[in-house]
Amino acid sequence: MEKTLSIIKPDAVKKNVIGKIIDRFESNGLRVAAIKKIQLSRADAEAFYAVHKERPFFGELVEFMISGPVVVSVLEGENAVAKNRELMGATDPKEAAPGTIRADFAESIDANAVHGSDSLENAEKEIAFFFAQREIL
Ligand code: CMP
């Protein structure tokens, strides 16, 4: 069983589609092992996305991620990292396959509804960034 980190981003939280997105996970073999709604601070967003700090979109990414609350969750299941990425679709919703979360709920490459860990190694780091071990059940 793998675990991965999911973030429902401020655009999707504002659209009131948290439940619809969680349903995609649950209906496709992933289980919610931990979940919370939080407002990221600027320091949180900069630290979480530190890997992108030299990229030209870093400033906008941080501004967007602190523009409203997010829902962070730990998803568990077989091949959870890859399964979550398949369900999310491509980073840019214009390129996301029909029926994926980003095709159905995202507006743009910045406001792209969800984040998901891109590897098992990053999943472990990202889960530890948001959750204590006792919160993951
Ligand atoms: P996410 O999976 O959260 O990881 C980094 C985010 O940066 C990505 O989703 C996008 O929302 C955002 N982003 C903005 N521009 C780009 C870009 N050109 N390439 C990749 N990610 C981008």
Characterise the protein shown here.
This protein is an alpha+beta fold and 137 residues long. Helices cover 39% and strands 19% of the residues. It contains seven helices and four strands; from the N terminus they run βααβααβααβα. It has helices at 10-14, 18-26, 42-48, 58-65, 80-88, 101-105, 120-130; strands at residues 2-8, 31-38, 70-77, 114-116. A four-stranded antiparallel sheet has the order 2-3-1-4. It starts with a strand and ends in a 7-residue tail after the last helix. The site of adenosine-3',5'-cyclic-monophosphate has 8 residues, from loops.
Q: What is the fold-level CATH name, i.e. the topology?
A: Alpha-Beta Plaits
- From the 3D coordinates, which CATH architecture would you assign? 2-Layer Sandwich
Structural class: alpha+beta
Given the structure, what is the number of helices?
A: 7
Oligomer: single chain
CATH superfamily: Nucleoside diphosphate kinase-like domain
Proportion of β residues? 15-25%
Cα-atom radius of gyration: 14 Å
Shape summary: globular
What does the main sheet amount to? 4 strands, antiparallel
Query: What top-tier CATH class fits best?
Result: Alpha Beta
String of helices and strands: EHHEHHEHHEH
